[in-house]
Structure formats: structure tokens, C-alpha cells
Amino acid sequence: MIVGRREAWTGRLLLVLLMAVTLMPFLSLFVTALHPSGSYPSGLEWPSDPQWGNFVKAFQAARMIELIKSSVLIVLGVVPLSLLLGTLAGFAIGHLRMAGRNLVFLVFVLGLTLPFEGIITPLYYQVRDMGLLNTRWAIILPLIGLFMPFGVFWMRAHFVNVPEALSESARIDGANVWQLFWRIHVPLAMPALSSLAILLFLWTWNQFLLAIVLVDDPLKRTMSGALGAFQGQWGTDMPLLCAGSLLILTPTLVIFLIFQRRFVTALLQGSLKG
Amino acid sequence: MSRRTRWNGAALAVVMGGTLAAGCGAPGGDAPQPEATGASLAAAPTCGTAPVTLNAYIETGFPLPKELSTEFSKQYPNVKWNIREDQFAVITQNAPRVLADDPPDLMRLPQVSELVKNNLLKNLDGYAKAFGWDSWPASQLEQMRLAPGGKTRGEGSLYAMGLNFSMTGVFYNKKLADKIGMSSPPTTLAELDDAMAKAKSAGITPIAQFNGGATGGLAFPLQDLMASYGPSGPINDWIYQKPGATIDTPSNVQATQHLEKWIKAGYFWKDINAVDYATMMSRFIKGEGLFSFNGDWESGNLDKQMAGNVGFFLMPPVQQGGKQAAMSAPLTYGISSRAKNADCAAFFLNWVATDPKAREIGVKIGGSHPMGPADAPMPEVAEGTVTASTLDAGAKIAQDNGSMDFIANATGAIYAKSWTPQLQKLVAGQQTPEELLKSVQSDYTSQVGGS
Amino acid sequence: MTRPTPDSAVDSPATRPGPAAVTRKRSPARAGGLRTPSRVGWLFVAPALIVYAVFVLRPIVLTVQYSLYRWDGIGPSTWAGLGNYVKVFTDPDLFASILNAVKLIAFFSVIPVVLGLAIASTIRRIAASRLALVARTVLFLPQVIPLVAAGIAWSWLLSSTGLVNQLLGYVGLDGVARAWLGDFSTALPAVGVIGAWVLLGLCTILLLSGMSKIDPSLYEAARMDGANSLREFISITVPSLRQEIGVCVTVTVIAALASFDIVYVSTQGGPGNATMVPGLEIYYLAFSERQVGMASALAVVLMLLVILVALPIQWLTKDRS
């Protein structure tokens, strides 16, 4: 297996190179963030006097605590409700198999490829007429709707594979459909649900378009939208912008590193099932 | 089976029908109604004594509005501020949407005519009368006046106010000027060209300018050149949307060709299409360019960062001793027609122009001439500073009646959709001067006539 | 962001039949559901359907409606018929934005998929090593962070004084150094590179995990027949990965056509209109130029374009076994 060995080394080298390219932007952000505020450092150049205080400054300028709170509130509004609605519908279409399921499933599936830009204009006027502009609901409610195709699709794929004998035996014990769903099927769906939860969390947290169009106050936006506003305000100060960007992407990064296995699996499944 | 299906079909139809029924009738129609005129006021309004929070939407990167608001709260402690900041390009994009749906009490405005057309701005005539703004030099307020319906600018009712009025021209780095033997500011365009050529051969970039992203900064030198080659009146007519006005005139073609000559001669940075305003400022301060076409809003900043090393002159005319012109515009702020605290906002605007402390802040921090009556006391400015020379330049422009608004302000979209991309193409050699003006003019016609 | 893609198979399991696939039995009784009245099933579906109808279907219908009017978003509107659509296809700037999105496919899709395939097959042998496990985490980072952050970081890297030019300088290529995002000829490719960076890791790992499911005996058999690596790759790897490749292509093509975040942050569509894409143009038209009708017409074209591109890819790569 001498050939195999050389191949393995080429593989390693390639992998390391690829990782370097992946990490390069992060490194550049980090090094730039340490330069004196207001300066224009060139390239990747370690500052003579690293300004760690920039992170503190950016933390205050971006009002990180409030930003995190806002994003958490939005995620709490979107994810549990999307999971619930998606599971209910997925259960009905995949397991209860009521008449007309194919039609309604098709209606949902058609929304899978929808680019958000396609409906952002009417959504703006609709949200405005509901009096929700500049509230977190302006992001939460449309996102739940926009996540329905994927949520239903995902949960249906799970329920389609659940043996019906399970329900039959519970039925014999006298359980009604709701008990059947809540006591037997939801607990069994936990792996699928948690993967879906991770995906929805990520997509909500990083949602940009809805945030910048529907909410003007950065403190009521998602993290990603707030970063847009931060760039608008501090884009003239490169080191501060870099420090702020790093801070803003830290929460997802930390959560990713803690739950990385679930994340990777979820993302892989997510794209495969999709 | 069939009964069930019908039931389901009905359910689906109810859900869909109920929510989709929206699509009947044309969109729109809830537009704000025009105010008759600015209602006349019995007495000049104040901010009262009860706690008030003014919502302001200002431009980031310029400390003046913040300093003013802080001082205002010091003098009127019942007034608190809720300030949102964005870059100017972002404000321009957001203006109609924000004014209509999230009305601030005070907002930095781009071009006002379309906002007036849609009745988004408060008519300030009532305030003008109550505070006596009508007795100030008329030129200060001219650019913010609009004829009924927002058709033509420069006359009619007042829809915005300035925090000060700015003056544009050419800043230069004195050390670099010494190096090429330029002892005094050029007095003709030919002398300016000469200085640039000398700088170029001395290895100095002649012009520090920005042209990147959504902000085509070459509009500054271009309009200055237009004013050198021709009179400023027709340019103003075009900006004010006077019927029949055109930007595509022979002298403007000459001006654009002159700009192209500078581009081809390599007088700008090679990456100018990627340089934004802040980058330009930082490079100019570092000494990476001899001239910079900019405005006196930077005077205070430059006096601090390049103390003693920076000079200012008005764009020289083609002929020695010819009339000079400059873009001079109020730092425009408006009040939303739906603002909650319009009276207090108006009181603040009046205070900015008349309070001695506010006028001092306006000059020291803002670097520009304050608004207000002609005989209002002027704050002291140290001799030899660039702030002093920009204020002097203001007097010369007033004498030559050479004040112009900015060509980027002709319509709401003309800067982002026409000037910026066209000037970027000119830099890249993908557009000719003749076609550039034709293209801008055709966009202008469709924007003015179309919407 | 990984965007879901449609599955054209309605009511058939979406899981791919691999070694671990469960074989399900369908009892005839099942077709009628669990002896539960359909009404109950519809009650379960109703909440999802209502939210979806209000916040997605209704706006889609409204977009189509708006696209037939001239409207500034504030005042009254006037009927325009198909005029807005005619303009979308005849106005050079608007049509160029669609072309730009199509060109971005080369970077968002072709590079990640082709490069991803090459990398995945090279590192297949070390797929279980510790290095590969670390790589799995690292290569996923771009998927996790907001695209806005990626845009900010890359604008900085690609600026005239950025790291990319610095590196070019080290290898003696100062001549090609430039402000990559500010140059007419390189701005669009530079935006494309940002997208490729975001999507390459995802594709590589997706393909890699697909490769690990290929039966090794297939390769052994091929070796016996004297096939070289390239041959192996073409006749075994690629066909076995049809579904994964399909997923990569679909996800990345949609990301290219519907790109917004990266362009908004890095170039705002400039210089000139060199990097204008439909998503950004819709945003500008609708909210700053207030041509809501035109924005909506472009939005309808974009939605149709995405469906027209995504469906055939799905159909071509569907597992037909």
C-alpha cells in the first residue's frame, strides 16, 4: 500500500490547506481588531501594541448584552412554535395520512425553494398593516411561516417511517389521537426534533433580510441584522468593526463548538433530506 | 371517500381563501394627506417642562448633531434623546420608509422633493413665521423650499432646516505643496492642473478622493469642474427640477472630459473605486494625497488631525478672476409629518441657529457657517486655521452668488442609480464623458417625469 | 446558509436506501389512515397551514399582484399590465442583475462541487483520522456564522491593503494586486469567491459522508480490473454520489440565484452595477427607489427562475433505484 500512503499524505496536506483557507478570514478579523481604533492596518500584521480594549469598546458600542437578549427572544419565539406546528402537520401528513394529504404536502413543498427576497415587499406592507413593524414579532411571525415548508417536510419524513403498529396498539389501550401524538410519537421523534431545532435556531439567529427590512432598531433585531447596523454605524472604523464582528459571531460559534456533533449531523441530514 | 374529500377541499379552500383574499383592488391608497399649509402658530413653540424624548435619526461619523443634542439637554434637562445612527447612503435608502412608518422627530435628510411629494415631511412655514426664520438671508433656506406638490425646489414652503450650511472646495496638504513648490493656492484651473502634474512626477498622488461602494465621490471634483467651465445657475436649475433643465450641456461635457483627463493621467489612487469616504480621510490625513475635494464639515477634524498642515481654497475658475462657485448646502434636517414632538424638534432647530453656545459648537465641531440672522454674533475662530479659511470662502461665494446644491441631490435615486455607477465606469474606462451625461440625463428625465 | 430543496417525490420516503435503510412494509389497511377521521388530520395540519398561508402564500399572491401595477409604495397605484415584466427583460441594468446571479453559479456551485469532489476523494482514505475529525469542525465554521460576518471579513481580506494582496506580494505577484471588490473585472468573481468559501466546506463534508457509504468492495473489484484512480473516480465514486451531488448543486445554485447578504455587505452591487444581483435589486427598487411594481416583477421572475433551475436538478439526480 505504498501508493495509499502517498495519497494519504497528499490528503492530509490538502486538508490542512483547506482548513487554513477556511480560518484565514477569522484570523484576519482577529488581528485587525487588535490595531488601534480608527487606523487602517494593512494585511496581516501583528500590532506592536495590541489593543485588547477594542473588544471591550466594541462590546459596549454594539450593546452586546441587549443584542444577545434580543436574538434569544426571537429564537424563543420562532423555534418552539415552528417545531410544534411542523410536528403537528408532519404527523398528520406522514402518519395519520388523511385524505388530501398529497395536495397539502405539495403546497408546503413548493415553498421549500422560495427565496425570501421574493416576498419581502408585500411582507413589509403586511407587517406594517398589522402594526408590528419594529417589533420582534415582525421577524418572528414571518419566519415561522417561512420555516413551515422545511419543518413539515422534515417531520413528515420522520413520521412516514414510524411503524403504524405502534399507534394501533396504543389505540387498543384507549388512547385518543392527541394522547397518541403527545405521549408516544413526540417522545419518539426527539432525535428528528432536536436536529430540526438546531437548524431552525441557526437560520433564525443568522437571518438578515427580514431583520434589516422589518425592524429599524438594531436592538430588536437578530444578531445578523444587528451586525448590519453595526457595520452601518462603525464601518468607518476598521479595527472596531472587526472586533464587533468577532463578538457578534461568537455566540453561534460557542454553541456550535459545544454541540458540534449534533450540528454537523443536523446540517448534513438537513441538506440531504431537503 | 367522496364526502370526506369534499369536506377537506372545503377546509383547504376556507384557509386559503380567507388569507389570500387580499388580492382584490389595487395596492396603496392610505397615503398621508397633505397639510393645507404650515398652520400659523399663535406663539413660538417650546419643549415645555414635561419630560420629552426626541427621536432622532442622524448620520454617523460626524460628531456635530450629538454634541448639539448633549448641550441642548444640558440647557433643557426635560429633553432626552433617542438617537439612531447610520451612514448617509443607508439613510438615503431608508428615508421614505422610515418617515412613513417609523416617524422620527428629527431626521438627517437627503434630497427632499420626493419626500414632500408623498407628504412625509412637515411643512415648517408656521414655525418659520413664529421663530422669524423668514428674516434670515433667503439663500440659507432656498434649497429646502418646495413649490406645492414638491415639483420644483428653491421656492415655496419650507420643509426642512439646516444645522449649519456647508461649503465645499479643495483641501490641500501644505507639506506636500511645499515639496512641489506650490506656495499659494492655484488661482486658475490651469494652475491647478500644473500643480497636479508636478505632484504626479514627484511621486505624490495628486488627488485624494473616494469613489467606492455606493458613494461616487468623484461627483465632488466633477461638479467643481462644471462650475469652473460654466455658470452655476443652470446646474442649480437642474438640481431644482426646473422644467426643461438638462445636465448634458456643452460646458458640462468639457468638465467631464477634464475629469477623465485627470483619471487617465493617473491623478487618483488606482483603487479609487474601492475607497470609501472614511478610507479617503484616513489616507489624506496620513499624507497620501496632495488635494482632496471635500467640504468644510471636515475643517474642525482636519484642524485637529493635521494642525497647521492643511489649507483650503475654492475651486479656481478657468479664467483668472472669474466667478467662483461651490456646492454649499444646509446640513439638512427635517421633521416627519407624523412626528410626535414636532414642536420641540422645531424649537431645537431654532436653538441651533440662535443660541450662542450652539453656534459656537456648530463652528468648532461642525466647521461650517451657522444658520441664522445675518447679524448674529459669529464665534471666534483662530487665525490660520482651515476653519477660518473655509468661513472666509463662504463670504466670497456669497459675493459671487455662486452657491450650488449638490448634483447628487437632484432626485432621490440619481446618486445611487446614476452618478455613482456612471462615475465608477468612467474610472474603469467603460464610459465616455459624453455618454455619461446622456445616461444621467435620461435617468433623470424618467425619474422626474415618471413617478 | 443551507437552504432546503424540494423533493419531488410526494408521499414516498425521502430517506435514501443505503445499507442502513429500513425496509418498510405497507399494509393495505394503512392507505386509509389510522382509522382516524380525516377531519382530525386536518386539525393537526391547520395551524401550520394558516401561518404558512398568512406569511408566505399571501405575500406570494400579493407579489404577483403588485407586479402588475406601478406603485411608489405610498400613494395610489396605476395598472401597468405586463409592462414591468417587459422592463425586467429589456432594461440592461435589471437584466444584467439576473445574468450576474447566473454567473455567480460558477463560483457558488461549480467550484464547491468540483473542488469538493476532488478534495473529498483525496482525503477519503484518511476520513477516519483525527485530523479529518478536526477538519469536519473547522470546515463547518462558515456554515455557522452569519453571511454578513463572512462578507465583512472578506471585504477586508480583498481590500487593496488586505491579506490577499499581501500574500500575492510574497509570491512576487504584486502586479495583479488590486482592490478586488472595487475593480469592474474582478468584483463579481471576488463576490463569488466569498460564496465559494462559505459553501465549499459543506459540500466537501457532504460528499465525504456519501463516500463513506460506498461499498469498498466496488473499489476492490475495480482495482482487480486494473482501473486507475481516475477511472475509479468516474465509474464508481461519481455515480454513487449522485444524490449528494444533487443536493450540493441544488443548495448552492439557490444560494447563488438568491444571494443577498454577501453582496449587500461587500459591494452594495458596485462598482457600477458589476455585482448587482436580483435579490439586492429588489431591495433597492422596493425600499429606496420605491418602484414597488418593478421590484415585484423582478421578484416573480426570481422565484420562477429558482424553481425552474431547482426542479430539473432534483429530477436528474433523484435516486431511481
Automatic annotation (TrEMBL), chain A:
One of its GO terms (cellular component) is plasma membrane. InterPro entries: MetI-like, MetI-like_sf. It is a multi-pass membrane protein. It is found in: Cell membrane. The keyword Transport applies. Signal peptide: none annotated. Its main location: membrane. Belongs to the binding-protein-dependent transport system permease family. This is Sugar ABC transporter permease.
Automatic annotation (TrEMBL), chain B:
Gene3D superfamilies: Periplasmic binding protein-like II. SUPFAM superfamilies: Periplasmic binding protein-like II. The keyword Signal applies. Residues 1-21 form the signal peptide. Keywords: Signal, Transport. Belongs to the bacterial solute-binding protein 1 family. This is Sugar ABC transporter substrate-binding protein. It comes from Microbispora bryophytorum.
TrEMBL record, chain C:
Residues 1-32 are annotated as: Disordered. It is found in: Cell membrane. GO terms for cellular component: plasma membrane. One of its GO terms (biological process) is transmembrane transport. Its main location: membrane. The chain crosses the membrane at residues 40-61, 94-119, 131-157, 187-208, 245-266, 294-316. Residues 98-313 form the ABC transmembrane type-1 domain. It is a multi-pass membrane protein. Keywords: Cell membrane, Membrane, Transmembrane, Transmembrane helix, Transport. InterPro entries: MetI-like, MetI-like_sf, UgpAE/MalFG_permease. The keyword Transmembrane applies. Belongs to the binding-protein-dependent transport system permease family. This is Sugar ABC transporter permease. It comes from Microbispora bryophytorum.
